[in-house]
Sequence to fold (471 residues):
Amino acid sequence: MTAWSEVEYTAVRELRGPLAVVAGVSGVGWDEFVRITLDSGERRYGVVLEVDRELAVVQVLEDTSGMDPARLRVSFAGEPLRVPVGPGWLGRTCNGRGEPVDGGPPVFGVASEPVGGTPINPVRREPPSDPVLTGVGVIDALTTLVRGQKLPVFSVAGLPHLELALQIAAQSTAGGAAFSVVFAGMGLTHADASFVRDALEERAAAGELVLLLNTADDPVIERILTPRIALTVAEHLAFARGHHVLVVMTDMTAYAEALREVSAARGEVPARRAYPGYLYSDLASLYERCGRIRGLSGSVTVLPVLTMPAGDITHPVPDLTGYITEGQIVLSRQPHALGVYPPVDALSSLSRLMRKGAGPGRTRPDHLDVAAQTLAALSRARQVRELSDLVGQGALSPADRRYLDFDQAFWRRFVAQPRDEARPLDRTLDAVWQVLLTLPRSELALLPTALLDRHGARDAPAGGEREGAEE
Fold:
């Protein structure tokens, strides 16, 4: 329970967008929680953004519409905004401020924690290890998500990034260990918010999901709070309850735009594309809260989803995200146009920590070798495809034509999968082997001889015929 100060300030000098400037304050600090009482008795809440001598700039969570600066009473809590934490969040659906929208009572917790949080102390940080299996074949096989990792999804408007995020949230597991998902949606349309609730209904009913939904018509300040509340809840579940927690945050571009809007209202000097100069440190303050802590059994894994305006990967949001995170999953228009779901561009995607979470003792002994060979073959197939566009398939060598067969089989027989299918890892890797065996044995130089023998890899037939080529 917040202990509010008995001192109330009435000198609200100005309302500017989502901000209120309060004069004559004393003993007020940055990030303090604020209660604002309107003349009608309605209460709204905010957070102190800045203090300059006797002036405090307050960020109003419910926006300032309908507020008369001459009829406001402002009280300061003397502490940051806090939320209750504990297992009471599991199975609940709330708005971006953590208020229930599922018809249930307020969320109660065993304790309360400040939503600002802090990054994990590097001295206590344990290296990420062991996989989070998403059930999405192309991700599990080629860009394995590791417990404690931060791995963003880069997409563009029109691609099914929300569907992919929901599929991962609905079916991810941690090898039988206690596992929970915190899904934070930011700037969603009402149709998308309803779609999210329906898609994750089963996981919520199982008591494994926390759902925070901020819609596009909610106050912009709420959008900035949503990922912080999600991470605060996740940290308690992971480090106090021993859960492995996956935090899915979509769309981080909407979050960054909210940050830009508040920065403009404060009159700050803009940086690249009018985003605030502290965009990098602000994103880092979120992403660096994930990981594992030495001596504790749980972990927080973060999967931020962001759309790249006009597909520009050098845009500030994906560009800065790439500096902070440990790889990326990139969605592409080309496979999407061919009807392939999920349209993951495997050659542009990368999990820098994959070797920490895959291979002997973690997934399957042949996993890393198969992934390396598949990516090498994909790279060669792309070169052949470009050459074919120039000279035509008739001018290609028999070996090059086999790579075209491999490329087609990769998309149709491996990457493509139903949106509600949770594909087991063994079946995923077996499917990769079937695709690789469309190539002659001589082209599989990255695979050990024993593995090739075990899977019956053969050399190219005499005369260059293409056995098993898809028509």
